[in-house]
Design goal:
single chain, 148 residues, Lysozyme-like, 3 helices, 5 strands, 34% helix, binds zinc ion
Length: 148
Amino acid sequence: MRQIKYIVLHTTASKLGTDHRNIIKYFIDQHNFRTPRPPYHFMIGQYGQVWECSPIDNITYGVANKNRNSIHIATIGGLISDDRTSFQNRELARLLLRLNKKFPDAQILGHRDFPNVRKSCPRYDAKAFWDQVLLINDIQKFKKNETN
Ligand SMILES: [Zn+2]
């Protein structure tokens, strides 16, 4: 099993409805990999579809020089601005909570939070999003305890 240090959030910088297979194909065509690999482990479509594009134990190519210990997740969209849908946010939150359980020591952050990254990827504050997810999760746990 790889040691996971980072869980990295991305947007694909494409139209919201773009087919995830076309994004993978475009990426692989752009790069000269000996073994073609997708840029992300997971992609989340506009209606909350979650595609596992690569097993977690494989390396994908989301951030230059930071892939060995990273899991990459992308919401499809973000061509011009942050256009994430509530379906995408919900599935992203679920996926992050699941991965956080499996890799509690991994830091959750955005592509643009790495040093020397000039891209605005993702198009939102990934750490703030994760803080919100944790907060909502805590409130839900609290409510459950109250009704039990
Ligand atoms: Zn990115």
